[in-house]
Amino acid sequence: MAHLDSLSDPVVDSAVHRLPDPRPADAGPGDTRWWPPRLLEPRWLADHVDSFDLLHLHFGFDTATPASLRAVLDTVHAAGRPVVFTAHDLHNPHFRDDAAHRACLDVLIPGVDELITLTRGAADEIEQRWGRRPTVIAHPHVAPLDRVGAPRTPHDGFVIGLHAKSFRANLDPGAVADTLVRTVTSMNDSGGDVTLRIDIDDADHPRAGDLLAMSGRPGVDLRVHPRFSDDDLWHYLSVIDVSVLPYRFGTHSGWLEACFDVGTAVIIGDCGHHGDQHPVTQFGFGPDRFDAGSLERAVRSTYLLRDHPPTATRSDRVSERDAVAAAHDAVYRRALRHIRTDVAARAS
Questions:
Q1: Which backbone phi and psi does 190 adopt, to 5 degrees?
Q2: Of 293, 257, 301, nearest to 176 (Cα)?
Q3: Contact 257, 119 (CB under 8 A)
């Protein structure tokens, strides 16, 4: 959450202090292992609710239940503290069956004191589904600022990146690989210099077979390797010209933001509200549909615009970062005023 802090506003910097994520006793060294937030454990929360002024929830409630989230809200509110929720995902990208996630949203969205989302499209959907209008605050930069808008790594030809990304539930690279190979072959037969780079960091996954079968096909550069480090990821994004993100479902994308930071174009399925984040090229793709022709057209149109990909500048991301921090500060202050007014009303 460091990218929610202001870079140049001392008032906001001094007003907002974000506490580190409490570590479970068995977390072990390093930060590679994910654990459910302790702040969502009602018993632990009750013992520590006096250690903060406001609870801001983003992610991490995959293992929560509606009942446990109601208990969290009740515990925080009983202590006279507000809760803010940023709705990143209206369909959890880790689960095709979204019923459990929707049930949790049915508790959080009506029950928190302030609600945030990342795009106007998502705000419209939330208002339509729950009758509540969120504050829209853009996603800040993902890449380190010294990499935003930096010169890209020189490479030959036009490289299309298709990364399996551990085969997250909403990502279906195998469904689009054959269309991409055929498109690359056709473009090269017409004099292009195009490569489809396929990256896999879990070759033993049951869904890896379709991609592994692409090895040796014309125009395909297949690479199997361990999961990228952050530095490896930034290098990878700088040596591909476009990243194809075959999302069957979802709402927003941090990977898309990273691409925008480093000047990598994005072709993405037309689900969710990704097109509201930054300029992207979309193709028809959903839980049970795939328009192969639209994907081919997306590749060809991106190739024609290859010298002018949508790219962030460092100065714009710095200004945006300050605006994001100021917007959060305003939301927090509003939430604190709201909860204090409610407490005062109950006391009287």
A1: -95, 15
A2: 293
A3: no
Residue appearing with tokens 């004191």:
113
Query: Which residue do the tokens 């945030």 mark?
Result: 116
Q: Where are the domains of the chain?
A: 2-141+323-347, 158-304
State the average pLDDT over residues 138-158.
96
158-304: in CATH 3.40.50.2000: yes
Mean pLDDT of 46-65: 94
Going by C-alpha positions, the residue among 44, 39, 20, 42 that lies closest to residue 31 is: 20
CATH of domain 2-141+323-347: 3.40.50
List pLDDT tens digits, range 311-324: 999 999 999 999 99
Considering the chain, what percentage of its residues have pLDDT values greater than 90?
Answer: 83
Contact assessment for residue 327 and residue 163, using Cβ atoms and an 8 Å cutoff? no
Task: Tell me the CB-side half-sphere exposure of residue 104, using CA atoms within 13 A.
Answer: 22
- Tens-digit pLDDT profile for residues 223-235: 999 999 999 999 9
List, in order, residues 6 or more apart from 74 with CB less than 8 Å away: none
What angle (nearest 5°) sits at the alpha carbon of residue 23, between those of residues 21 and 29? 115
Nearest to 208 by CA among 173, 260, 255, 249: 173
